[in-house]
Amino acid sequence: MAFITRCYRNIADRLLRTLGVLLLVALTAAAHAGSIEPKRGTLVAGEDGSTLLSGEFVIDLGPRLEEAVSRGVPLYFNFEFELTRSRWWWSNELVATRTATYRLAYTALTRQYRLTTGNLHRNFSTLDEALRVLSRFVDLQIAERGVLKIGETYAAGMRMTLDRNQLPKPLQVDAIANRDWQMESRVMRWNYVATPPSPAPQSAPTGEFKP
Length: 211
What we know:
This protein has helices at residues 2-31, 62-70, 127-134, 169-177, and strands at 35-45, 51-60, 75-85, 93-107, 112-117, 120-124, 136-143, 153-162, 188-193. With 211 residues, the chain is α+β, with helices and mostly antiparallel strands.
């Protein structure tokens, strides 16, 4: 009887140790998973009366995506912005939208990272430099002069996501179940009261990358 009891205890101890290792692996994987978090978003009236958006995200690719892009797998990021006005008699009015797609890739021949949006592109020596520029934007025109009414309140929202649909086909299958490929920021929301045009042009910080 004592022998059987010791066997059960040994088996239980081994199971607990195994579960502990699995839990540690899971927590470690979760801690190293990539993420995108919105940091700030602001709207201002430009010198010409248009509405301009500036903002910043905190982008951490995590080991899995960093390795993928360093091996030549291009990553695509989608930026989305929406501005609405509340209407008590109907659904909210969509006032303005802005979208942009960014391509981040590594070129082994030049040993540089390239960030592309539309017909624009820039090269960087390191991945950190490329991500720093990808995460920040300034003075993006959201609406032309006269679209927003001075003094009215508008609801703004923005986010950035990794576009898994543009990954190579074999990786798309893995991305369905693997959270390392599932990078999507929460939607950052804030209210903006439309103001008159700024008396002076907005000065863009260095290192910004406008689409």
